[in-house]
Amino acid sequence: MRPPANSIDVQANRRQFLSTSLGGLGVAMATPLLSLPMVAHKVRGIDPLKRLGKPSLRTGLAAYSLRKYLDLKAPKMDLFGFASKAAEWGFEGVEPTSYYFKESTPAFLAHFKAHCSQLGLEITGSAVGNDFCLKEEKALEEQIASTVQWAKNTAIMGGRTLRIFAGRTPKGDTEAAAVARAIEGIKTACKRAEPYGVLLALENHGGITSTADQLLHLVKAVDHPLFAVNLDTGNFHTEDPYGDLEKLAPYAAVVQVKVDMQPKGKAKEAMDYPRILEMLSKAKYRGSLVLEYEGDEEPLVAIPREGAKMADLIRAKGL
């Protein structure tokens, strides 16, 4: 789905931003979050991401896959051990989820980056938990500030994307009001994160992003060159999840892969990896295919097997 004709300047805006944005890790803008009027948003929207060259996929592993070992309340593994396991299992990159950093000082982030570099691993990006639908302005500002801080942290580690959420409609509120706040929250976070050059990638994660149409509405309403989509293959529970994923693939800056999906009214079924790869190839996707394991099997057993399966299919398809 392409934006209307009056948005043809969006790609030009992207190019202008990329050529003039500040380098390095400057201080993020401190624009205050103003009261958000609940009005209809003029639809402009970002274009699908411009792909140059052939499709190209690299395997990655999300730290969330090993959450039962990385949980900071009772850790059995740290992020350094996670990265070492990912390298041992043959993954090309890692996505260190923000939840599992025991500290996030520049020195610690640099140490982790160096560890991954020594292992030959790319840090694809990171992921933050946030809710931009909150009604209380102070709480919403805290969510935005945390997101921007993690954009900076991701840049220090050399990552290119930060997975973000939109949120869920608060009890007693309307979805329209929640969506309006989420749109302004994403815009504000993107603006403040400009000095770091990290794409804020919105995941289809339930709430106001439960369907492709809901997420596309946000995609159209947020007009910023640092905004993109984090496509999660297992999070749509509609009648046609693969069709919904295909609608969003052109906007995806990062793809998280689950081992199964559950269409509406049906039992869980194994993820059709070849179909996902065909979809991404058609969209000329160039980026990471990050395994986010949420299955019932022991992750130390399932992850290397599923990672190898993904890598074999990517090679077989010449991607």
Topology as a string of helices (H) and strands (E): HEHHEHEEHEHEHEHEEEHEH
Number of discrete domains = 1
How many whole angstroms does the radius of gyration measure? 19 Å
- Distance between the ends: 25 Å
Strand order, main sheet: write it out. Answer: 3-2-1-11-8-7-6-5-4
What value does the average pLDDT take? 88
How would you sum up this structure in a few lines?
With 319 residues, the protein is of the alpha/beta class. It has a single domain (59-316), classed as Divalent-metal-dependent TIM barrel enzymes (TIM Barrel), CATH 3.20.20. Helices cover 39% and strands 14% of the residues.
What does the model show?
It is a single chain. The chain has 319 residues and is α/β, with parallel strands linked by helices. The protein has a single domain, classed as Divalent-metal-dependent TIM barrel enzymes (TIM Barrel, Alpha-Beta Barrel). 39% of the residues lie in helices and 14% in strands. It contains ten helices and eleven strands. A nine-stranded parallel beta sheet has the order 3-2-1-11-8-7-6-5-4. Strands 9-10 form a two-stranded antiparallel ribbon. Helix 5 packs across helix 6 and helix 7 packs parallel to helix 8. The protein is globular, with a radius of gyration of 19 Å. The N terminus is likely disordered.
